[in-house]
Amino acid sequence: MADNPSSAQSVSPLAPIGVSAAIQAAKDPNFVVKPKIFDEFAVADRVGIVSGGNRGLGLEMALALCEAGARAIYCFDLPSTPSDEWTKTAEYVKKLGTGSRLEYVSADVRDQKAMWKKAEEIGDREQRMDICVAAAGILKSHTDCLEYPAEQFKEVLDVNTNGVLFTAQAAGRQMRRFGRGGSIILIASMSGSITNKDHAWVSYNTSKSAVLQMARSMACELGPERIRVNSLSPGHIYTSMTAAYLDTQPHLLDKWSNLNPMGRIGRPDEMRGVTVWLASDASSFCTGSDILVSGGHHAW
């Protein structure tokens, strides 16, 4: 029997790795011993798209991918020009000295054909597509579910569900075009699995629940093409979106903090590690999964 039964099916691009490397080192005195765990998390020379990348979680994730070695991360967002926060972050990326680029693309995730075209233009320029983070999303105010206006409900789903699909399609079509596989990360929310206590957010919760099933469905279709699709579900995080609640209703900070075992809400930078893990070869056998990062909100 082979030492590694899975070797006939798949071989790590960093092979030999792990215990296999240790065994080979024992047999071969000339074997170069070096740690490879950080190489597994690297995304060197890869190209990606991050929607909602002008600020907030999207920008945080885009920066993390650049720090992990990506050649270029294209931040898609609605404003015609990037925010000051984005501009400063792009300058920071240049100073890292890794050769990574943060690029800004004005785009409406609700426009399927435009999203496809912009991704195709990136493919033409870079000749590859490896990573997609569909992070664009909106949240509307507390609204009674029995009185919820049709247009407002449609607006939320157009961005949070349709927009996520169109972003994933745009990047995935280029992944298919170049045949190298890739990783698509759909940003859902713990609100797709639970209902936020005392918040009437029927449109947001519904949209995020749809994203969970979207990720599973796409993962099953695209697995044979080595395109992995997972969802990432943050808990309560202080971002520009949640600030609309927290800054005007200070009591909510204590309330939200006490809803998880850690007794605090999350920071945007706490999404960095899981994003890089999902984008990299470190998660090469992970697809169709929902990764919860909620401070244990579900564990009560």
UniProtKB/TrEMBL annotation:
Does the entry feature the keyword NADP, yes or no? yes
What keywords were assigned to this record? NADP, Oxidoreductase
Q: Which PROSITE patterns match?
A: ADH_SHORT (PS00061)
Name the InterPro entries on file: NAD(P)-bd_dom_sf (IPR036291), Sc_DH/Rdtase_CS (IPR020904), SDR_fam (IPR002347)
> Any keyword Magnesium?
no
Q: Which residues form the signal peptide?
A: none
One annotated GO molecular function is: oxidoreductase activity, acting on the CH-OH group of donors, NAD or NADP as acceptor
Q: Report which superkingdom the organism of origin falls in.
A: Eukaryota
Give the similarity note: Belongs to the short-chain dehydrogenases/reductases (SDR) family.
What is the protein named?
Sorbose reductase sou1
Q: Which organism is it from?
A: Gymnopilus dilepis
